Amino acid sequence: MGHIGKQTITFDNPPIITCAYASAGPKEVQGPLGEYFDNKLQDELLGEDSWEKAESKLIRQTVQGLLSKANKTPQDIKYLFAGDLQNQVIASTFGLLDFNIPFFGLYGACSTMGESMCLAAMTVAGGMADLVMAGTSSHYCAAEKQFRFPLEYGGQRTMTQQWTATASGFVLIGNSGTGPKIQAVTPGKMVDLGIKDTFNMGAAMAPAAIDTILTHLEDTNQKPSDFDAIVTGDLGNCGLDIAVDIANKLGTDLSGVINDCGKLIYDDAAEDTHCGGSGCGCSGSVFAGYFYSQLIKRNIKKLLLVPTGALMSPGSTQQGHTIPGVAHAVSIVID
Question: What is the distance between the alpha carbons of residues 248 and 244, in angstroms, rounded to a whole number?
Answer without folding.
Answer: 6
